[in-house]
Amino acid sequence: MHTTDQEPMNQENVSATLTVDVPATKVFSVLSDPVTHSAIDGTGWVQEAVDRAPLTEVGQIFRMDMYHADHPDGDYRVANKVHLLAPPLSIGWLTGQEKDDGQLEFGGWSWRYDLAPLGPSKTEVTLTYDWSAVPQSIREYIRFPPFAPEHLPDSLRHPAELVSDRGR
After folding, report:
1. Could you give the strand order of the β-sheet that contains 90-98, starting from the edge strand earlier in sequence?
2. Residues 63, 68: Cα–Cα separation, whole Å
3. Is the whole-model pTM more than 0.90?
4. Residues 6 or more apart from 162 whose CB is under 8 A from it?
5. Which terminal residue of the chain has fewer beta carbons within 10 Å of its beta carbon, N or C?
6. pLDDT tens profile 7-43
C-alpha cells in the first residue's frame, strides 16, 4: 500500500484515494460482497450483512445491520440500493431505510468506489461520500459528513488488507 491522499472537505462530498498493491478485480470482488462490508467500514458502525448475495446489478437492494451510539435505537438497519456497477472499475450505492410498510426511502447520500488499474497488480482506489442530494429537512438533524475524517482512508485500507489476508 502507498500513501493516502484525502481531498479537503467541501459542502457536498468528501473523497480519499489510496494506491494498493492489489489487482482491481480483487479489490472489486471485496467491495461487491456485502459480507465484507463490516470489515471494510472505517467507522465500526456496519455490523453484519442481512442480504449476503454479491452485488451484481444496478437496482439491487442489500441491507446491513448497523450500530451507532447516537442513533435513537442504537442498533438499526439500513437498506442500500446499488446505483452504479461497472466491474471492475466502479461501484456505488445509495443508503436509506425500509419503512414499516416495506417501502424504501433514501436520504440523499451515496458511497462510491472508483478503481483505476495501474498495472496487473496495482490499483488506485478512490472512495467518495456524497451528500449533495440530502434535503434540508434531514440536514437539520444530521451533520454531514456524519463520520470522522479518518473514516475514508480506513475504508480504503481495509479492502486491500482483506484481499491480502485472503491470498495468504
Report:
1. 4-6, 13-20, 123-130, 104-117, 90-98, 75-86, 61-67, 46-49
2. 16
3. no
4. 30, 36, 39, 40
5. C
6. 444 479 999 999 999 999 999 999 999 999 888 887 7
